[in-house]
Amino acid sequence: MIEFEEYFGKILDGKIVACDKMRRISEILIERYLAPDEFHFDASIAKRHTQFIETFCKVPSGNIGEPLKLQLFQKARLQALFGFVDDNNLRQYNECLIIEGRKNGKSTETAAVEIDVLVNDKEGSPQIYNVATARDQAMLGFNAADKMVKQDATLSRCIRKRQSDLYFSENFGSIKALASNTNTLDGLDIHCAVIDELAAIKDRDLYDLIKQAMGARKQPLLFCITTNGYIREGIFDAQYEYATNVLNGTVRNKRFLPFIYELDNVDDWTDENKWICANPGLDTIKSRVYLREMVQKAKDDPSFKPTVLVKDFNIPQSGSSAWLPFEWIVNESTYSMDEISHSYAIGGCDLSSVYDLTCATLLIRKPNRDEIFVLQKYFIPQKKIDEALGADTKQVPYKLWQEQGWIEINEGAQVDYSKVTEWFVDMVRKYDIRPLWICYDRALAGYWQEEMLEQGFEMEKTAQGAFTWSQPMKELGCALQDHKINYNNNPILRWCLANTGVKSLNKDGIESIMPVKMHKDRRIDGMVSLLNAYVGYTKHREEYLPYVR
Predict the structure, then answer these.
(1) 279 pairs with which residues across the strands?
(2) In angstroms, what CA-CA distances link 80 with 54, 83, 292?
(3) Can you tell me whether residue 362 is helix, strand or coil?
(4) How far is residue 452's CA from residue 144's CA, in Å, rounded to a whole number?
(5) Is 328 exposed, middle or buried (0-12, 13-18, 19+ CB in 10 A)?
(6) pLDDT digits (tens, 9 = 90+) for 238-275
């Protein structure tokens, strides 16, 4: 029995504690192993790669000079990655995503994979790249590979370090570090790209260009290994969602291989028996004593808890200063327009400035439903998107959100507030959703208020500050925690909620709170628009509820 069979078989037998996603990929792999189709499992090819790594690669830090001994979980997933081939012995999988807790040997494993595919993958002139947002980060993996080469007599004779790469003259291949200056990516002919810490990649284009640069290779490989992170609605969240859909069968892609190690329940972070679900190297690579100390620190210091949840257990969080934990924010419930039509509503709006993101909100209750339905539309000027494409906000997928219908992009440099008015009017005319009050920022309304009044809407000025927002914001937070806010799985609102920090003001023993941006480039306009509507809801609740229909 090879390690592939042992590891995934033990997961299915319950002998190895694993999360739902690892049990699912184990089922898929064993099914493919037992019932091959156009791809079959070749044990000799699978073992060729793991044996090469253990024969030639040495530990790059710590116990320097010792042979790298792959753990059972590492051997099994590498054998799965390399062992499934077609009748021409070409690999089935061209992309692998591994999500696991920190200190489980990620950087060492990626360096070993780089050397293996450089020397042992039967590819002519393979270009291997270690990819990261910053060159310093990319150099970490490159330097680990360099140390492995220097410590082995055979590798050091045939792989030469040049100014910018590791060069293997036998097949004209090389390993290079590559940072996220995407202007340098055009024209690359990549055989293998390794992304260590995908969650830190802010630029969606970097991933896409790397993927596209593999098109001329017979069996390319994109190898991503990462923990979870704090950047929401970026490339990590997109890949995580894609991997989840592959595992549950809603997306069919036989070329994509995901291994996701995580806790299934956030409450399990204090259960030592469940720690291995997110940390496959626990007790062999990662110290249980160390993890126990981290968990205890998180118990003693709540500000440290998000770091442990994200980095040790792969439970998504918004950030250490976030208003709400990410698990409170996420609500995948959806609704159809038929469900919420013919309703009275309470409106809210955050006009921001004419040069930025604007959001309109309708808050709706329905009879015999505990949920509060939230309907939103976003508006942004084209110039703002053009500026974002050249800045650190490049990962925000405005174009995708436009295609999905969440946002309207106005030509030019300003938001056309008349479009906001049109949306509210359309909701009345098309769906009979009639706002009784629309709460707005009196400081930024300008001519828009008059335009809305002319259309017959009841406009209510709402001061933007802790005095007005504090209690509604606390109630809104509780409703989000209980998942009673059904926002139709709107990705922009989810992003805005994840970007929201909280500023606490204490006066005369009374704590007041208000929303703040956790980063200057992150938008919270959708949350503010929702909060303005919620101000109206809490103020007019008794008046509004009799109109629920």
Answers:
(1) none
(2) 17, 5, 31
(3) strand
(4) 62
(5) buried
(6) 999 999 999 999 999 999 999 999 999 988 999 999 99
pLDDT digits (tens, 9 = 90+) for 155-199: 999 999 999 999 999 999 999 998 875 456 667 899 999 988 888
| Angle at 307 (CA atoms; ends 288, 256), nearest 5 degrees | 85
Work out the widest C-alpha separation in the chain, in whole angstroms. Answer: 83
- Structural class in CATH, domain 3-260: alpha beta
Task: Give percent above pLDDT 90 in the chain.
Answer: 71
Cα 36 from chain centre: 32
Identify whether the C-beta of residue 117 lies closer than 8 Å to the C-beta of residue 191: yes
Distance CA 65, CA 2 (A): 27
Residues in the chain: 549
Packing angle of the helix pair 525-544, 491-498 (nearest 10 deg): 100
Place of tokens 């250490």: 320
Residue the block writes with tokens 């504090």? 470
CB-based contact 318:494 (threshold 8 Å): no
Which residues does 149 contact at the CB level (< 8 Å), separation at least 6? 115, 155, 156, 159, 161, 166
Alpha-carbon distance values, 99 to 2, 267, 490 (Å): 23, 19, 25
Q: With left for phi above 0 and alpha for psi between -120 and 50, is residue 197 left, alpha or beta?
A: left
**pLDDT at residue 392, as a whole number:** 43
**pTM of the full structure:** 0.72
Q: How do residues 422-439 score in pLDDT, each as one tens digit?
A: 999 999 999 999 999 999
* Residue 389 vs residues 217, 385, 396, 428: alpha-carbon distances, Å: 30, 6, 9, 35
Residue 391: pLDDT over 50: no
Task: State the residue for tokens 């590559």.
Answer: 178
Domain ranges of the chain: 3-260, 329-547
DSSP secondary structure, 84-98, as one string: EE-TT--BS-SEEEE
331 in Cβ contact with 483 (< 8 Å)? yes
**Architecture (CATH level 2) of domain 329-547:** 2-Layer Sandwich (3.30)
